[in-house]
């Protein structure tokens, strides 16, 4: 299960705010990602989003649950 929360508007007015880039919170329910270390799980997610992190995502919060 994946829930994507767009928190971009909460950061409007910040120094480096850009309406073209998102501030996202990913809430992921995954037995596999929860079974490995938090660092390795986040590395996997970051690898999947690599190109978007360069162009479309300014900030990313990742929460992983069972």
Strand order of the largest sheet: 1-2-3
Number of strands: 3
> What is the radius of gyration computed over CA atoms, rounded to a whole number of angstroms?
13 Å
Helix content: 25-40%
Structural class: alpha+beta
Reading the helices and strands in chain order gives EEHHHE
Spatial shape: elongated
The oligomeric state is: single chain
Contiguous helical run count: 3
What proportion of the residues form beta strands (DSSP E)? 25-35%
- Overall pLDDT score: 91
Which regions are unreliable across 5 or more consecutive residues at pLDDT < 50? none
Account of the 3D structure:
The structure is a single chain. This protein is α+β, with helices and mostly antiparallel strands. The chain is about 35% helix and about 35% strand. It is built from 3 helices and 3 strands; from the N terminus they run ββαααβ. The longest helix has 11 residues, at about 40-50.
Summarize the structure.
By secondary structure, this protein is of the alpha+beta class. The chain is built from three helices and three strands, in the order E-E-H-H-H-E.
Summary tags:
alpha+beta, 66 residues, 33% helix
Blueprint (SSEs and pairs):
Elements: E1 2-6, E2 22-29, H1 31-35, H2 38-48, H3 50-55, E3 57-65
Parallel strand pairs: 2-3
Antiparallel strand pairs: 1-2
């Amino acid at each position: 299960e994946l829930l994507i929360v767009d928190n971009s508007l909460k950061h409007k007015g910040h120094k480096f705010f850009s309406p073209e880039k998102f501030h996202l919170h990913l809430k992921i329910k995954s037995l596999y990602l929860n079974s490995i270390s938090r660092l390795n799980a986040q590395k996997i997610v970051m690898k999947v989003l690599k190109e978007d992190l360069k162009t479309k995502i300014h900030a990313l919060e990742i929460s992983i649950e069972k």
